[in-house]
Amino acid sequence: MTAPSNGAMRMRDAGTQASFAPALPFALVSDRETVVGRGCLGVVPAGERPLGERVGAWFADHPGARLLVGALPYDHRAPAHLFQPAEVSRSPGRDCFAAAFSPPALVPAAPVAAPRWAAQPEPSLARYRAAVEEALAMMARGEDGLRKIVLSRSLRLTSDRPVEASALLRRLAEDHHAVAFCVPLPGERPRALVGATPELLIDKQGAAIFSHPLAGSARRSREKVADEAAARALLASEKDNREHREVVSAILDQLAPYCAELGAPEGTQLTATNSMWHLGTRITGRLRDAAMPSVDIAALLHPTPAVCGTPRAAADRAITALEGYDRGFYAGAVGWCDASGDGTWHVAIRCAEIAGAEARLYAGAGIVPGSDPQAEGDETSAKFAALLRALGIDEDGHPLSEDAA
What we know:
This protein is of the alpha+beta class.
């Protein structure tokens, strides 16, 4: 087969850019800062060069560009999706989010029946637990030196009407412990990745960098005594702390060659969303080279053991063999970067890909020696909870009761 000429590749890239007209704004929403990007002036083309070089070339060729926004896929060999918005709004807090995603009218024009949903787990919970058992067996056999494997499953939901991604994002943004996001994605039909992630991959401002990896989880309870007990049990869990150390050690090891200062001064602490407790460690550092782009740091760290495992290459092979589906942008990273190299990238978890009347949800759990297949399956169900609650349904697609909503 004859390889396309450079001219043909440029025409293809131009066609991709012209065809990407996002129906929704890009949004990254938190109490600290919100970034909203509307429209598209162009897409960073795929290519053989490292992503950081292509991003640098984009800013060099487009001196008026303020930001590139988008998502990195889980598979680092797959194309990233970064584009230049036509309009960018940034604000401390959430001011520009409210302007871009205004709430619906307080009084609807007419009563509207609730959507009806059909749910299809992919794989089934039983098959997921069997995959966990196989992952444990692989580690027990010492295959490839595996110490941790993060296995996920998905839930495909189909509604009797188009899913309102903007409304879903507004509901997810009610959790002030997480960062809500919406990333319009390329494709033959409009689609978007929408979620609320609690995990920061990397934030870079000049030479200062910050990461907040999470690993080790427990479901929260609405009953205060039970919720506090779950938090204490997680903090004391040898298995969860061991899983967490795998993530923190890997990130520190990967960052160390590039940093003049690096540490985790606060140690491991509890962190929470509205639905989950997590073990988290705040990592801070100063780069030797302040010009190192945030997108290069994100590519260096991604995928962390929080979404892949250790050793990374061996865990990735095991995931491919055991999960049975393409993660796409789930467990990748969502964020932005600017021409100076600064930027913020969050791990794309607790999310769903929305396309028309379909929503595909994702959730994963870290498997280490000592993991229990039943409990790990339950953990994935718990991690579906935030999105399912925002959609008003349970894992079987049934409407939530008022107590569960």
